Here is the input.
Amino acid sequence: MPGTSPASDSTIIPILLTVNGRTGVTLYAPPWEDEDGEEWQGFLGDGAKILLYASTRELAQFIASGEENDLSDHPAYGQVLGSTPDDLRPDPEDHYDLDGVYEWASGDPDPVHISALANVVDMVAKIADCCDDGALRRLVEGTPAYAELVDEDITYQGRDGAKRWNELGDTIAETWERALGRVESWLRWEGDFDASDLTDGEDVWDRVGAQPIALMLRDGTYYTVRADIPASSNSDETEVGFLGADGRIAVFTEVADLARYCRTATDHPLQRLEWWGELADVDDDAAFAPTDDEVHDLRKPSAEAAELLRELADFCRLEGDTDVLDGPTIDKDDWNALVDEVRTCFDVE
Here is the structure.
């Protein structure tokens, strides 16, 4: 859905929107200028509503169908037509969690919370502009507390800053439900969101399709993440992946460091997972701690740990003989030699 706005480079980016418990992926075109010199910005839409898909695979299928949409005439849309699901995976900074506003506003005015709030309010203003929703535009642009929030020069430090922060919290408590309702009215949810939403008893790792693991070695315990990842963007086959790249495994001696890496690092194969980017919004470091059944003791041979040791060796592309793990019993010296070789592939972060 297009709307007028100042011009910038012509591009289209995938974004995630979380609204009223659902998260969907769509496309957003930052301000550009058309052939007649008119300035626009827009979202992937059907002429009436913004289209949100449950997965990048479903978004890619819609784009590949060639169906007309509100971005079809965008100068960069031709480049989007050949996009794979991997190409359409939003960067972590392009996730706009409208549901998270209450939690952020109730916390301290640290830079992370302020930036997250400002980005969400700014995106809601973009939706108001593109959908020509005057009521929503007045709510976010005409409310002083919201206008101040997106002003880069504003500060919430000191006595005056604390007063502004409290006023912002009061404004959110009074108006954000209305903003959510207006935004929701402009969204068309496409795909199987029941499959992608978290259910009772499900945590973020169930959704991501990965698990933090602990590796107990003779020289200490190391933390990393293991997952079955797509072998390629257009294949149903999977392969085992870990944090790291090029035959190296990123490991950590502290859960907090593992959490930081998962939230920010981009050069590792687990980013192929559909919902990996959601980890950037998990504030609690404890959520990155392995469960008891994901703590693996590699200090002595065991059938339970043998398969994981084989996966680690394969990921590191080691030339060591993993056949020693096949027997009904495993020689202790062979086991230790393979574990020591795997250990040489660890990058302790």
User: Anything to note?
Assistant: Residues 4-8, 195-201 have pLDDT under 50 and may be disordered. The chain has two domains: 2-188, 204-348. The CA atoms of residues 53 and 154 lie 35 Å apart. The longest helix spans residues 158-185.
